[in-house]
Amino acid sequence: MDTIRAEYIWIDGTQPTARMRSKTKVMPKNEEPPVWGFDGSSTNQAPGDKSDCVLKPVYTVKDPVRGGDNLLVLCEVMLVDGSPHPSNTRAACVATAEKYAAAESWFGIEQEYTFFEGTTPLGWPERGFPGPQGPYYCGVGADEVFGRPVVEAHMDACMRAGIAISGINAEVMPGQWEFQIGPAGPVECSDMLWMARWLLYRIGEDFGVNATLDAKPVKGDWNGAGAHTNFSTKAMREAYEPCIAACEALGKKAALHVANYGHNIEARLTGLHETCSYKEFRYGVSDRGASIRIPWQVAKDGKGYIEDRRPNANCDPYVVTRLIVDTVCSAT
Ligand code: ADP
Ligand code: MN
Ligand code: MN
Ligand code: MN
Description:
Elements: E1 3-11, E2 20-28, E3 36-39, E4 52-62, E5 71-78, H1 90-99, E6 106-117, E7 120-121, H2 148-161, E8 165-170, E9 176-184, H3 186-207, E10 210-212, E11 229-232, H4 234-238, H5 241-252, H6 254-259, H7 265-268, E12 283-285, E13 292-294, H8 296-301, E14 306-308, H9 317-331
Parallel strand pairs: 1-5, 12-13
Antiparallel strand pairs: 1-2, 3-4, 4-5, 6-7, 6-9, 6-10, 6-11, 8-9, 11-14, 13-14
Helix pairs in contact: 1-9, 2-3, 3-9, 5-9
This protein binds adenosine-5'-diphosphate and manganese (II) ion (3 copies).
């Protein structure tokens, strides 16, 4: 019998920010990956005396790391009674996406992250600091850019897996990078983002570097790491007024959104470093100091999408996309 390796991937119950876990199942080729299980007492998802948690496959791609017919299998975590585990944020995202399916929501998420080698960001001196921010964003050259081979390998892996990665760029802080996923529906974009995060960690292993989604990996005059979330409905892609209405709706629930956009958001949304303070809400055309930016092209075309700049790099995209769909679509 021909067998393959299926890497089952899930999101654990660690607070305040969940971690990713995975383990391998050797299984027959050309079969659907079956429901599986794991020890929830080792992942902050169950007490030791009731440790069994269930893995329900929801998004499967070809494994670009192992190659061949091997698979990566993203799962939802379920309780043994078949209901979603409390740590499972995808189930609610699916419900909201279905409720407002007629709006045809699309998301494009810009995932920023920082490479670390040991205790310092990649490319930083062991003591002290690199030169101040300025040349690093979209830079080129070994004095400005650190970790490009990892970034290239990750982008290539995402493409071979069929993940809708739409680009990469070096970021403002040295050692910091970004990749973008989308546009795609709320659940699809979030599934692909989680899968792309797992691939980033996994590929980092081969290079001896570790990617962190910490929202403020270095204190002081260094940019934090966000996950700008670009959003449109069919109506927004056809006219300008719904883009403004979406901004207005998001403004009415600003506190709810900020509270659910990732751990330590107060440290990142300071009002400096291309952010708007978490205590304020404003939107504007081309404004990188606003909570929500309307890209100039969108203002010019009179239609398109908006960019919610508030989500942290360490946000849960199932939560962020669910909240945006719910807030915007329930208001219009
Ligand atoms: P920025 O200029 O803020 O750095 P990026 O180019 O990094 O923007 O990311 C823009 C993201 O927006 C991409 O992922 C892209 O796929 C996504 N996007 C483009 N059009 C739409 C749309 N109509 N709705 C939602 N997302 C979109
Ligand atoms: Mn970007
Ligand atoms: Mn960026
Ligand atoms: Mn952006």
